[in-house]
Amino acid sequence: MKAKIMMIMAALLVWTGVAVASIATVSGEITEIKGEMVTVKTGDGAMKSIHVDPSATKKEGMIKVGAHVSAEVNDKGHAESIKVVKK
After folding, report:
1. 26, 40 in Cβ contact below 8 A?
2. Distance (Å, whole) CA 84 – CA 40
3. What pTM value is reported for the model?
4. What are the structural domains of the chain?
5. How would you class 83 by CB atoms within 10 Å of its CB: exposed for 0-12, middle for 13-18, buried for 19 or more?
6. pLDDT tens-digit series, residues 17-58
7. 21-24 long-range contacts, CB within 8 A, separation 24+
8. C-alpha span between 45 and 3 (Å, rounded)
């Protein structure tokens, strides 16, 4: 019985781990906005394209070219949230 419970617990841990998407923080200056795509130049000079869904992405502040932002982005490039931050 104890072994069966342990197997079920292990299976649940593996299953929940697969369901969780990885989230990364992207911070920098917006250099371009084209439709729902926002390009951010990060502190190390890398350009990151982020999909900002008008109905699903939580937005804080005026998202515009030149604004400094911090975005929580999933592994598919979709922003869960994006907010304007002070430089």
Report:
1. yes
2. 12
3. 0.75
4. 22-84 (2.40.50.320)
5. middle
6. 555 569 999 999 999 999 999 999 999 999 999 999 999 999
7. 21/74, 21/75, 21/76, 22/74, 22/75, 23/72, 23/73, 23/74, 23/75, 23/80, 24/72, 24/73, 24/75
8. 52
